[in-house]
Amino acid sequence: MNDxxxxxCKIASGEIPAKKLYEDDDVxxxxxxxxxxxxxxxxxxxxxxxxxxxxxxxxxxxxxxxxALAGELARKEGAADxxxxxxxxxxxxxxxxxxxxxHVLGGPEPLGPMLQRRK
Length: 119
Ligand code: AMP
Ligand code: ZN
Description:
Blueprint: H1 7-13, E1 20-23, E2 27-31, E3 39-45, H2 60-77, E4 83-86, E5 102-106
Antiparallel strand pairs: 1-2, 2-3, 3-5, 4-5
Adenosine monophosphate binds next to loops.
């Protein structure tokens, strides 16, 4: 089920350390190693799915939990005034780690526009 070469599988198993802020049987959350906002953590299913393209109706539990936990964890981490949830997917989505994950980014400072506008 898990990929021995995958960095997020290694974090899930404890082989690689991370600052975990939540864990249950289906998902876990930890601080991004290169934070891009005052609050920046990742919510990740324990099962190795390369990307959102590979998720389907059989993953409703972890997928639901990723959304259901975002607000609660964002508030706990200090993003009480809003946040953004992002799932980069595939080459066009600029995905770097091919184990599905959702970024949660929050203030206190506003994050700016969602994408840079092209001229
Ligand atoms: P992306 O695949 O582009 O959505 O982003 C992958 C994210 O994983 C980046 O923001 C990295 O900073 C983060 N990341 C990579 N390795 C680690 C690690 N060992 N611990 C925490 N975050 C990581
Ligand atoms: Zn993995």
